[in-house]
Specification:
The complex is a heterodimer of chains A (202) and B (355). Chain A has 202 residues and is mainly alpha-helical. Chain A has one domain. Helix content of chain A is 82%, strand content 0%. Chain A has eight helices and no strands. Chain A starts with a helix and ends with a helix. The mean pLDDT of chain A is 84. Chain B has 355 residues and is mostly helical. Chain B folds into two domains: 176 residues, no CATH class; 80 residues, no CATH class. Chain B contains twelve helices and no strands. The longest helix of chain B has 96 residues. Chain B is rod-shaped and about 175 Å long. The C terminus of chain B is likely disordered. Classes of the chains: A mainly alpha (202), B mainly alpha (355). At the A-B interface, α4, α5, α7 and α8 of A face α5, α6, α8 and α9 of B.
Chain lengths: 202, 355
Amino acid sequence: MPEEQRRPILVANGINVFFLLVIPILILIETIAPNSDPNIREFSLLLMILVVIISLIHLFISYLGLTHLSRLLFVVDFPLVIFLFPALSGNVGEQDLFWFPYLVAAFSIIPQLVLTIRYERVLYLLGMLYMLVLLYFSVEILLSSILQQSPVVQTAQKYKFYYLRSLLSVWVIINVPFTYLKWLLMKREKELGQLRDQVKNN
Amino acid sequence: MKLPNLVRVWQTISQLGVKQEVRANPTPEWRGIVLSNQINFVLGCLFFLVVVTDILLLGKIDDATIRYMAGMAFTAGALFLNYLRWYTFGRFLLVLLIPCLFLIFPAVNQSTHEVSLLWMPTGIVVYTIIPYLIFRWPQERASFLIAQVLLFAFTLLSDVLLRLGADPTFKILEVIDENYVQFKRSMVALWVLLNFPLIYFMRLVRRFEHRINTNHVEIQEKNLRIQQQNEELKAHQEQIEVINQNLERMVGDRTIELKHQNDRLAEYAFINAHLLRAPLARIQGLVYLMELSGKMPTDDLLFLHLKESVDEFNGVVQKINALVEEGHHFSREDFTRVLPPSNAQTEDKDPEEGL
């Protein structure tokens, strides 16, 4: 398997292992942290356990050799669990509108990390599109989940077009450089392969 | 404007300040400058569109329009600095462009919009991508780090700057104050989330570029070695040609010498077969006649020696003749069978003793 194809698999597995290592520590901190809201603590623990279970499933599927499926699930379910689960379960506040959608936009780097442009072009494009759709729906769900009397929600509703435009700009600003870097990487790898052939032939 | 013209404009703007000799295929060293030109150009065009829309379609020139005009001036200035080859200044102008337009300008002008408070403090974090694209690590380490520190500082101070220009009655400010720690934590989280993958990608690109350079060097070294080997081979070929020429001359000389020797040998064979043989036959005849006439006593020792020597002489001549005619190599050992052992030994010891 060429390095370009192997690398995203390693990265996906690495991130899953990272979650597996870090989340137990976070659970421990969350459990022993004083003065925390019991509801939020309970919800955070549930979310962390979910992430651990998902990471384990990803790693198991990857171990079975179904790396495409594992990575596709990685793209689909992590943002879904981390961002939509709190919103759908009503565990969001008006303050989340400041940062929540931006983290969704930042998470659109996941397809960039775990999929290749050359070998999984369709999946890659679908992953990017999925992130964009998720970004839009995260705003919609947030706005409908938070109390409508909140000044933040009112401002966001009033200037929804500008708010969504700014989010789209952020998504573009994040993804265009990453796509450029991936393209550059692909070009360099191809160049290197050609050079290696040249060295061998010499 | 036709599409090829637009492409030409894009290429010309992209390569502003890039040295003439690398324009056709800019090396990685020039990537940051090319990218900064392209980003400046795209942002400048976007600002221009906003300004044109504001003035021509909406018929207004407000703070936002002036801000975008300032943005156009910024991008044009950055492009001009790159054109003058003051690349570092040009790129720093790009680094400061968005914080100046969206944080400092509203703060100075008292024109922070309510919605800006909602998206700008966190949104500014994504601008930390820019230094990765326009500065080259580790060659421009200092510039990169300064740009990163500046942008990180702007990220942390974004809400403070926006607040300076905001109406204090904005209710959104109260929400920010109530969740200030979470607000800042989310900014830092976003910053980390963006920077780690960027570092990873940049490292990969750098690693591949390093490998490409190493391979280029290897190919150049191999080419140099091949060239040296070629030169050595050429020198050897020339030497071989010289040796061949010498050899041909030597073979020619030797052939001539052998031909002379053969001629001499043929001459000697003729002398041996005819000129030497004739008086020998006559001596043999005379000895025979002397023997028949009875004038010489047949038991005379001198006569016997004479007869024996004449026979021996005849044997040697015949043997030489036979060997020369057959063309075989011959030596003095071939005559031991012809000569009596005593004579052969005598000749071995001292050929001149018998004379």
